[in-house]
Amino acid sequence: MDMNTEFPIGAAVIGLVASHRAMITKQIRAFDLYPGQDMMLMQLLGQPNQSQNDLRKALHVDHSTIAKSIGRLAKREIVTTTKSTQDKRITLVSLTPRGIDLAKQVVAIWHAAEETALNRLTESQKDDFLNDAKQITTNFDQKNA
Prior knowledge:
single chain; mainly alpha; 3-stranded antiparallel β-sheet; 7 helices; 3 strands; 69% helix; HTH marR-type domain-containing protein; DNA-binding transcription factor activity; transcription; DNA-binding; transcription regulation
């Protein structure tokens, strides 16, 4: 079975995601980060003091993945955790100053990946791609609801 012929959308999406993730992973490994931790750092840079549950939802991962990543990052003093003053059951996560510096470097890596992805595409092609990707995501989300 030829995946590209039988499932062209699926094959294209998987190929795109795999290529993007490979490019990002190669660069974040230089900072001793695991795949997915880069996205957590960027999320916390944009919105400090987030609950683990909010991070889980924003990053579309399960609770154990968030907990493991936070634990690893906390050991390296990249993030800190505190209990919410409003609800002691909620653990809030924030970047340390070291984490902020690292997150800014991760953002630069992601900006470079964006430039690479969009290289030689016209503005119209960029707009079409984004619109199509959003519509396909909506289609999947509605089916999964």
